[in-house]
Design goal:
Layout lengths: L21 H6 L15 E8 L14 E5 L2 E3 L1 E5 L6 E8 L8 H15 L9 E7 L3 E8 L2 H9 L9 H12 L5 E8 L10 H11 L2 E8 L9 H14 L4 E4 L4 H13 L2 E5 L12 E8 L5 E3 L3 E3 L16 E2 L21 E2 L13 E3 L2
Parallel strand pairs: 5-6, 5-8, 7-17, 8-9, 9-10
Antiparallel strand pairs: 1-11, 1-13, 2-3, 2-12, 4-11, 6-7, 12-14, 15-16
Helix pairs in contact: 2-3, 2-7, 4-5, 5-6
């Protein structure tokens, strides 16, 4: 294998055995000045690199990376060894009846994750939102840094029928398209989709369009294969792989802190690479281009998205999603504020159309 061997893209199926020392990883990194750009043609790639043991690698230089776009090498024009670009994190909590037994532990662990995410070491622009999903998708807390609001939102998660994983990923992705910085989707689920009006390809396409990294935390209620949804687990792992996230599979929700810790390490130790595509071939805005990131480090594992949607170098009107017509989201009332005092709608996102068959289209509704 040459200097740049082909590396693994995305996350893998793994059991979580313990927590990582976040502070120790962060202090070992040298920070280069951030380089910000508003050039719409520049393709930005948040990249996490891990060694063979799963520990983050933070000492790589620009020359250690290689970017291939459609198998052709591109010059790296932006390099941040530890990017401080703000995080926009959507936490998707599975509220289906199959998760009811573990829901208490999931909420408690998710609350601790959000405290660490927005606490010491966070950037002023970092924010999180909480959405739950069953047959429908509910916005429980709009993007905020308020721990009180996020904790209250988690407390409002209630088990209901149905599991619309793909619908939730698509709607969360569209929700994130209104945000700048690094978009991230963290999903707590048992892995099985039963009621989505959309399919895997729709969800992946939406995540790519939003440039969102997906981190599924797949909580298995039992250790035996009976009752497991292998297809659903594989789909979530594949979503993570192609979007630059990482999937975690474990039994029960009582040890979710370890998985959340590793997600946080990934987000806090990301490189940022930027490159300009070739001048030719800038076709429609939905032209998807494959990208591969390689590093000159033996045994390294690269977490980076597998491609992007090309954007025209000329100004064009805002494109309506091919998925469906706009639908408005309402932000959940602030803690301690009556509903009628805070019913301003958020920016519109798109609702997927109803497909043929018995499954209905996802519904986005305000929280209780």
């Amino acid at each position: 294998m040459g200097r740049f061997g082909s590396q693994v893209l995305g996350g893998g199926h793994r059991l979580i055995f313990g927590s990582l020392a976040i502070a120790a990883c962060a202090t070992a990194l040298q920070i280069e000045p951030a380089v910000f750009t508003a050039d719409v043609r520049l393709v930005s790639l948040p990249v996490t690199v891990k060694d063979a043991r799963g520990a983050p690698v933070g000492d790589l230089q620009r020359e250690d990376f290689q970017i291939l776009e459609s198998d052709e090498q591109r010059e790296i024009t932006v390099f941040e060894r530890r990017t401080d670009r703000p995080l926009s994190v959507v936490l998707l909590v599975d509220a289906s009846l199959s998760t009811a037994v573990e829901l208490r532990y999931e909420r408690e662990s998710a609350g601790r994750f959000l405290e660490r995410l927005l606490g010491s070491g966070s950037q002023p622009g970092d924010a999180a939102a909480v959405l739950s999903f069953s047959a429908d998708v509910t916005v429980l807390a709009d993007f905020t840094r308020s721990q009180k609001e996020l904790a209250a939102a988690l407390g409002r998660v209630r088990p209901q029928t149905g599991t619309s994983v793909y619908d939730a990923v698509l709607l969360a992705s569209q929700y994130l398209q209104q945000r700048d910085g690094r978009p991230v989707i963290v999903i707590i689920t048992d892995g099985g989709d039963t009621t989505s009006g959309l399919n895997f390809d729709d969800a992946l396409r939406a995540a790519h369009a939003a440039e969102a990294a997906i981190y599924p935390l797949i909580v298995l209620p039992i250790r035996s294969d009976a009752g497991r949804n292998r297809g659903g687990e594989h789909a979530l792992i594949t979503l993570a792989k192609h979007t630059g996230g990482e999937a975690f599979v474990q039994y029960g929700a009582r040890d979710l802190d370890a998985a959340f810790d590793e997600v946080l390490v990934n987000l806090r130790t990301q490189y940022l690479l930027g490159f300009y595509p070739a001048d030719d071939g800038f076709n429609p805005a939905d032209d998807f281009r494959k990208v591969e990131v390689r590093v000159a480090r033996e045994g390294a594992v690269v977490l980076a998205r597998s491609g992007y949607f090309a954007k025209s170098p000329v100004e064009r009107p805002a494109r309506r999603s091919r998925i469906g017509a706009p639908v408005r989201l309402r932000t959940v009332p602030q803690v301690g504020v009556a509903d009628e005092e805070n019913e301003e709608p958020a920016e519109p996102v798109t609702r997927p159309p109803r497909r043929s068959g018995t499954r209905k289209a996802p519904i986005v509704r305000p929280g209780p």
